[in-house]
Amino acid sequence: MIRTRIVCYITSFIVLFGGAGLVWLCFAVPLRPHVAKPAVVNRNEGKVSFYHQIKPILQAKCQGCHQPNVRSGHLMLISYADFLKGGTHGPVFVKGHPEKSLVIGYLEGKPELMPQGGPPLSKSEIELFKRWIAQGAVDDTPAEHSAYDAAHPPVYTSSPVISAVAFSPDGKTLAVSGYHEVLLLNADNGALEARLVGDAQRIQSLVFTKDGKTLIAVGGSPARFGEIQFWDVPNHKRIDSVRYTYDTLFGASLSPDDKELAFGGADNTVRVVSVPDGKQIMMLENDTDWVFGTVFSRDGKYVVSASRDEALKLTQVETGSFIDDINTHTTPMRCMVGRPGQDQVLCGGDDGIPRLYKIFRTEARTMNNEDHNLIRAFERQPDTITALAFDPTGNLCAVASEAGTVNLYDVDSGAKKLSLPPVRGAVFTLAFRPDGNVLATAGFDGYVRYYDVRSGRLLRAFIPVPIHRPNHSALSVRRRGHHG
């Protein structure tokens, strides 16, 4: 199970961050499994534990077909509550009565053998299920508590990978993603003003409401849960936090009236929730792979999703009705942003080509698969596109890549305006200051950098997290251990 958990972590980060994500996992944060390894239990032993003995079997043998992305038989097996709820045929176990429980029949091949397409459970594993049900099918899952809170924030010996930055609407505050937290900095001098500590291990999107009073952080803990956090910025207090899905969330965007939030997930869905309570308004299931970006139309009635399935999908929010694939499928999408004042989106992905699309089709679809909604394809970047941003006017865009490059383009002509000096590792996030004169970049190396938009000159570079300096000998041993 430990090996399974580590594979889940590494898979999530390699998919999102490429090789840089794997390197970061080795150096930044120790991986600690959250589910115990199944114990070998003699049938004559005492009480069976759901958390320590049943759940690990479900994770290893059953969750491939019974999770939010698949839900075979409308049955999910992510948690005890899912297991208890059952599926198409109702509850799958009856507390105290294994002989009446559907799950036992399926595990024994009556009427159909489960897991489907995989090796059957051993007799001892099936016996565990029988004993657990006979003993009352008790849920002994411990309550989850983060090791970090406002009184016990993370301690850093080096800056973590930065996956999200955002300027407040007045340009006075810069929000930066950390490990289990969002850091609020004075945007002028980089001074730390507040640490907003939450449960999510990684924050993938940061969005301020237009009045600057609420900050929304979207992310999660890979292979465990996705989370939305709503923060009261002036008082540095959490308004609410809501969990969705069993994995990290991505690509948050606010509706024009700031009343709704859209985001994508690793379960191939787009969800639209109310702000600031996070109650689900609509779940959109039109994508067939991870969704990394969302953008609302200017009237807030539609949302565009960018997915690893190569599609930009237009969906009506109120009904959840799929409207259109607005692009010809070209490459797995990694990021997308909306152009200010226009029903247009800029997207990028594995092939390194930024593409600007109009959201709504103005020409009839034809059989020759021409990309009718495409406004412009910019020059190919040196690697996978990892971040995109428009300046406040929508006339200038910035494009970052996994190669550590950032290029700025005139949107209407497609002409390159600037190439910033490459940095070590991928650049994962970009943000223009509201006055449009400064571009902030951050990524793999843990630095935030400010650049003058007109000249491309580096204005400042700084580590946004407080660094704890251990004694030299201990650090040397630690570094040798990592490299060994």
Query: What is the averaged pLDDT score?
Result: 87
Radius of gyration: 24 Å
Please mark out the parts with pLDDT under 50 across 5 or more consecutive residues, or reply none: 1-44, 472-484
Helix count, DSSP H or I runs of 4 or more residues: 7
Structural class: alpha+beta
What is the rounded distance between the termini?
24 Å
Report the principal-axis shape.
globular
Q: What spatial order of strands do you see in the largest sheet?
A: 1-2-3-4-5-6-7
Total strand segments: 27
Strand content: 25-35%
Layout of secondary structure:
Blueprint: H1 2-17, H2 19-27, H3 50-61, H4 80-85, H5 102-107, H6 123-134, E1 165-167, E2 173-177, E3 179-186, E4 192-208, E5 214-221, E6 225-232, E7 237-244, E8 249-254, E9 260-265, E10 270-274, E11 280-284, E12 291-296, E13 302-307, E14 312-316, E15 322-325, E16 333-338, E17 344-349, E18 355-358, E19 374-377, E20 385-390, E21 396-401, E22 406-410, E23 416-420, E24 427-432, E25 438-443, E26 448-452, E27 458-462, H7 472-483
Antiparallel strand pairs: 1-2, 2-3, 3-4, 4-5, 5-6, 6-7, 8-9, 9-10, 10-11, 12-13, 13-14, 14-15, 16-17, 17-18, 18-19, 20-21, 21-22, 22-23, 24-25, 25-26, 26-27
Summarize the structure.
With 484 residues, the protein is an alpha+beta fold. The chain is 15% helix and 34% strand.
Structural summary, described in words:
By secondary structure, the protein is of the alpha+beta class. It is 15% helix and 34% strand. The chain is built from 7 helices and 27 strands. It has helices spanning 2-17, 19-27, 50-61, 80-85, 102-107, 123-134, 472-483; strands at residues 165-167, 173-177, 179-186, 192-208, 214-221, 225-232, 237-244, 249-254, 260-265, 270-274, 280-284, 291-296, 302-307, 312-316, 322-325, 333-338, 344-349, 355-358, 374-377, 385-390, 396-401, 406-410, 416-420, 427-432, 438-443, 448-452, 458-462. The strands form 6 sheets. Strands 1-2-3-4-5-6-7 form a 7-stranded antiparallel beta sheet, with no helix packed on it. The chain has a 4-stranded antiparallel beta sheet with strand order 8-9-10-11, with no helix packed on it. A 4-stranded antiparallel beta sheet has the order 12-13-14-15, with no helix packed on it. α1 (2-17) crosses α2 (19-27) and α3 crosses α6. The radius of gyration is 24 Å and the shape is globular. The two termini are 24 Å apart.
